[in-house]
Amino acid sequence: MTEYHRPTSRADALTALAEGGARARPLVGGTDLLVGLRHHHDVADVLVDLKGVTDLPEPIVVTDDGVRIGPTYTMGELVSHPVIGEWYPALVEAALTVGSVAIRNRASLVGNSCNASPAADTAPPLLVHGARVTISSQDGDRTASLDEFFLGPRRTLCGPGELVTRLDLPRPAPGSASAFRRLTRRRGVDLATVSVAAGVGPDGGLVVGMGAVGPRPLRTAVPGPVDLTDDASLDRALDELLGVATPITDVRGSREYRLATLRVLTKRAVLAAADRRDPREMAS
Amino acid sequence: MTTAPERAIEQRDALGEPSDPYPQGQVGRPVLRYGGGDRTSGAQRFVADLRFPGSLQVALVTVPVGCADVLGIDTTAARAVPGVVDVVTAADLPSPMPRFGVSHTDRPVLADGRVNYHGEPVAAVVAKTLDAAQAAARAVRVDHRELPGVYTLDDALAPGAHRVQEPSLRPGHALADTNVLEEAHYAWGDLEAEEARTEVVVEETYTFPMVTHFPIEPGGTVAVPTDSGGLDVYSPVQHPYLLQRTLASVLGLPLNQVRVFAPDPGGGFGGKQNPKLEPLLAFLALRTRRTCRLVLSLEETFQSMRRAGCRIAARTGFTADGALTFHHVDADFLIGAYADVAPRVMGKGSYVAAGPYRIPGVRIDARAVMTNTTPSTAFRGFGSPQVSWALESQLDAGARRLGLDGLEIRRRNLVAKGEAFVRGESAAAADGEWHQSLEKAAELIGWGTPLPPGRGRGIAVGIKPGATSGLSQSLVRLLADGSAIVYAGTSDMGQGARTLWQQIVADELGAPLDQVSVVSGDTGTVPFDLQTSASRSTVFMGSAVLEACRDVRQRVLALYAESTGVPPEELEERPGVLVTPEGELPLPEAARTALGSLRGEFIGQGTRRLRGKGKHPLGGDAAFYEFNATAIEVEVDRETGELLLTRHVTVSDVGTELNPLQVVSQDEGAAIMGLGHSQMEQLLLDEHGRIRNLGALDYRIPTFKDVPVELVSAAVENHDGPGPYGSKGISEGALLCTAGALGAAVADAAGVVIRDLPLTPERVWAAIQAAEAAQ
Predict the structure, then answer these.
(1) Do A188 and B706 touch (CB under 8 A)?
(2) Does residue A254 belong to the interface with chain B, where contact is any CB pair within 8 Å?
(3) CA of B297: which chain A residue's CA is closest?
(4) Which residue of chain A comes nearest to B694, CA vs CA?
(5) Distance CA B309, CA B153 (A)
């Protein structure tokens, strides 16, 4: 039998999680958790529903320095937020590929990040945009970059009794831009065979977030400038960026195919991001 | 033997059908779907929505491999789960284990000492709640020893291979000691002589994947014991009367003690035709004396139904002009652990392995090869999509060698109406103007017009034999106020059959469309119908309903004469009216007059029977053929292998569109379903015979986002079918040759020929990589 808690305060939520230990799960949209429970891939004795908590960080706060996202902010809200669309276009492109409209209206961005699927669609752009998370427990708060947060398949820094209460995205530097590309087996709702987000900095430096090509979402970067009009220099940058990818062969695709298309998609994402940069803001 | 058109005329004459179609207004109109509102709004109640207070829930116990000996089953822990009422294993069922099946009586009610495919139940738990049943099912300990099961054609055909079926189930059969369940052979002409005059020979091997039906409603069964010792069984089956007969036979009950209620299936596609788990539920209900309910998960549905995979080696000859000279086919159908109807799929599919073409020399050798996999069954197309994939690809290969295009080579080989495409003892001739469909598809795709780089076009045709025997019976009641009730046993699983009965009755009896209701899905009240399969219902049940309407009109005429004193010879009945010496009377008015103050009603009966032919390899001549021409325009991403279908045209030879809206919806549905096995669908097995992509997450079917940018459905109407007003069945045509058209389009766009379905992005990419490496 699973206990269901619907605390109204952050403190009560953390208490319930601490008491539940390793078999307690926080619940927001449930788009991963409930599927896992139903198919017995996941076992939970305690569900702690965060949707009734009144003193968690606001779903979204925009400041001059960036955006703070709380645990209850949904993918559906994210894709229609004008500032997110302007500052983090790759994130909106990625979020629009998550499930379907109905799923996006339930799914939480933070919750999906905590699920830590190697193929999570929003992970690559969050990595590109330098997301940090705040992990809270009864003992206090700590922060980590998302790159540090992802440990392996379905494993994160967030341990028993802990809860990610906040995700911070710094405001991108002027003259930078991002784009997202993904390969699937069909055009409708599907899991990524390969996904990639690319960011081009004001100095022409590149940062890439990759999904479904390793045990966890991966992030790499090369400093600028990279001459994107020169095939050889772009190829060299791609070699450097993509060397960490270690895809496996599974029902969605072979290792060989993933490696080849990762390169194709990364190139496309880099060029698309470069096209998005505002020429007036680019470093000369 | 009569030619197809002669047969069509004879059949129409036998029904007394005037040559002029469309008696009045409703037939031929895009009337909205009968029950469509409830289906759209979610108000329709599927079997899982039916409430049975106090019913027990059933969960199945399986072992995690495809082939195993069951050494022992420990139910102690399961029985201790609170709420568990019973845990049933083979030991609790009659001995010998009752078996059933439509072509071979080989399928046990529960696995009996041997698991033959992954998902085959070895025990069933009956409990007061679903949670308890599922928890107890997980607590059943099955001691089993995995056997070296056969999961591929090569495994099954290897010398010394594990035998899927106990040889004792086929005593004395020449193939009993092999995994070949049945063979089919068709041949005509002199292949050697034909080859001697051949310019180009194409020899290739093609594969078609195992795919599953994926009805959106997984389905299930509820068995209710009756006070008289019988059973009421609720199951969304396509063949309620077959289920009734099977249950009666397995249980030793008379037919009147087994009443099958068949709530509308939420999609069937052939997968819900034949009994599967219903006999088990029946035994559970009789044993517990309680209502037992099992609603399947999608995963369990995958383990219950699929299409036969196929490997086809073809050798095909052409003259320098592109005329086919010979076609030699070896087709191995990868069927499952039990026969179901798979041998017939193999036999009927391979019967048309030479397609709708004029080929003087043909040899077809086909086998149904058993493997330790989900039993394959009927699936839209019934063996034709597999053979069509190979043949259409062969035609395009020949065309490329000869410098012809895909349209031209088909023009040169397609048979004319009345011309035989199957020769020899069991010949068959074209029953439609099939060239018209080909030309229309070519026109609608813009064949021959320039294309941008990276795009290509393909065109293909396909045929499928309709039903070769059949029996549909119907009752029509014309009530005193002019409204009417039709009793027709066709299962309405989304094809919209009831709408047609409504239209026919409205026209034939002059009743307002919205005052015609249809009763179906109950063997206790609705007369016999053999099956809802093979796109037969329009032709068979449609004719029975039509005849029942005529019967009603004749009864109205007779009683009108009696009650008014007008001599019957001065009266005439026509669709919707009674013609009297004073002029035409609307039929409802004539009926009211005839019935008088006592009221009452008229009951008409109609039967449409097609007897088979004993010595015909299909059991008889097909009542009609479905013919389709499909043309596809595709854009290929050479770097990722992704396909974008920019235009997809399907043209079916439909006889007469009784309801154009439904013709289009069936045609589009079939086309999109055809894209499934052409582009993305395949069941993948691991080395233990388990489905690796068991479930919706990794078994992908087309969504609306996968529908081609433009999908065009058109029809050719020549009023030349054997059904009411010249109609034919039309529900399968548009998926017969989807793969061939797409394969040809990809070859045209990307310069690579792929012979294995589905054409996944990875497969297209790999082919392009290989071609570039070879340059």
Answers:
(1) yes
(2) yes
(3) A39
(4) A251
(5) 9
> A1 in contact with B at a CB cutoff of 8 Å?
no
Looking at the structure, tell me whether residues B127 and B233 fall in a common domain.
yes
Residue B30, domain member (yes or no): no
Q: Are residues B161 and B334 in contact, defined by beta-carbon separation less than 8 angstroms?
A: no
Task: Please indicate, yes or no, if residue B185 is contained in any of the structural domains.
Answer: no
Radius of gyration of chain A (CA): 19
CB B342 within 8 A of CB B181: yes
Mean pLDDT of B50-64: 97
pLDDT bin (cut points 50, 70, 90) of residue B11 is very low
| Residues spanned by the domain of B89 | 47-147+219-295
Where are the domains positioned within chain A? 3-170, 177-281
Residues of chain B with Cβ-Cβ distance to A254 below 8 Å are 762
What residues in A contact B768, CB-CB < 8 Å? none
Structural tokens at position B227: 């006070």
* Residues B97 and B108: beta-carbon distance below 8 Å: yes
Same domain, B281 and B362: no
B207, pLDDT greater than 70: yes
Amino acid at B607: T
Mean pLDDT of A192-212: 97
Residue B570 resides in a domain: yes
Whether CATH 3.30.465.10 fits A3-170: yes
Domain boundary among B610, B640, B655: B610
**Distance from C-alpha of B599 to C-alpha of B583, rounded to nearest angstrom:** 24
- Chain A segment 264-283 residues within 8 A of B by beta carbon are 264-265
Mutate to test the interface with B, among A100, A186, A238 (most CBs of B within 10 A): A186
Chain position carrying tokens 């129409």: B12
Q: Among A271-280, B196-205, B627-636, where is mean pLDDT lowest?
A: A271-280
Task: Identify residue B462 by its one-letter amino acid code.
Answer: G
Supply the ipTM of this predicted assembly.
Answer: 0.95
B289 in the same domain as B338? no
pTM for the full predicted model = 0.95
Name the domain boundary from B271, B295, B319. Answer: B295
List of residues 6+ apart from B727 with CB closer than 8 A? B538, B539, B542, B654, B655, B656, B657, B658, B721
Together in a domain, B548 and B666: no
**Domain identity same for B336 and B444:** yes
Q: Which of A117, A185, A256 to mutate to test the interface with B (most CBs of B within 10 A)?
A: A185
Q: Say if CB B612 and CB B469 are below 8 A apart.
A: yes
A-B C-beta contacts closer than 8 Å: 47
Single out the catalytic residue among B278, B392, B732, B772: B732
Residues of chain A found within 8 Å of residue B705, distances taken between Cβ atoms: 186-188
Which CATH number do you get for residue B125? 3.90.1170.50
Q: DSSP string spanning A132-187?
A: EEEEEETTEEEEEEHHHHEEETTEES--TT-EEEEEEEEPPPTT-EEEEEEE-SSS
Q: Is A166 touching B (CB cutoff 8 A)? A: no
Fold of A177-281: Enolase-like; domain 1 (3.30.390)
CA B698 – CA B374 distance, rounded (Å): 18
Give yes or no: residues B449 and B494 share one domain: no
Condensed to tens digits (0 to 9), the pLDDT of residues B390-428 reads 999 999 999 999 999 999 999 999 999 999 999 998 999
CATH of the domain at B358: 3.30.365.10
User: pLDDT at position B702, please?
Assistant: 97
- Are A183 and B640 inside 8 Å of each other by CB? yes
| CA-based nearest distance B8→chain A, Å | 43
CB-based contact B766 A264, cutoff 8 Å: no
* Domain-embedded: residue B402: yes
C-alpha span between B352 and B342 (Å, rounded):
16
Annotation says B584 is catalytic: no
Q: Say how many domains are in chain B.
A: 3
Q: Are residues B256 and B132 in the same domain?
A: yes
